[in-house]
Amino acid sequence: MPTARDIMHPGANWIPAHETLDRAAQMMRELDVGALPIADQDERLCGIVTDRDIVVKCVAAGRDTSRVTCGDIAEGTPRWIDAGADVSEVLREMESHQIKRLPVIENKRLVGIISEADLARHLSDKQVAEFATRVYARG
User: Fold this and answer.
1) Rounded to whole angstroms, what are the CA distances from 139 to 57, 82, 129, 132, 135?
2) Which residues of 18-133 form beta strands (DSSP E)?
3) How is residue 111 annotated by DSSP?
4) CBS domain: from which residue to which, for each copy (predicted)?
């Protein structure tokens, strides 16, 4: 069975927790992505910031994107998967936490990220349909 490394988008970029949301938005535009993993001072995963987070938690709240940092809006413990985990573990992690992006870690460092698009490219139509049902189900 394929591993997380086999289906991930390699070379994912992260943003330091001290960087501002306007810089995160610029990076997202430059990289054509909708989310960036957030790294602490030791380059370890400490959260994820999405384009939606920037809009909802900052812009819509009347806050200044040049003054709010990525670390300020990071919530909870980020979910991640080891690069050697098999795809069934990837699906279980994403489905059980209803998440659409999953950072891939090896030796405590970010090596990639798995998104819905990666799943669609590497899984069967049946697996993708089951994933979508479980992640988007409201219950």
Assistant:
1) 25, 29, 17, 14, 11
2) 35-39, 45-50, 81-82, 101-106, 109-115
3) E
4) 8-65, 73-130
CA dihedral 50→51→54→55, nearest 10 degrees, is -140
Domain that holds residue 126: 4-136
- What's the Cα-to-Cα distance from 110 to each of 10, 12, 57, 137, rounded to whole Å? 9, 7, 25, 29
Question: How confident is the model over 68-99, as pLDDT tens digits?
Answer: 999 999 887 889 999 999 999 999 999 998 88
Q: What is the C-alpha separation between 54 and 48, in angstroms, rounded?
A: 11
Spatial strand order of the sheet with 9-10 comes to 9-10, 109-115, 101-106, 81-82
Q: How far is CA 91 from the centre of its chain?
A: 14
| Domains identified in the chain, total number | 1
**pTM score of the predicted model:** 0.85
Q: Which CATH number is 39's domain given?
A: 3.10.580.10
Task: Give yes or no for residue 4 having a pLDDT over 90.
Answer: yes
Contact present, 80 and 48 (Cβ < 8 Å): no
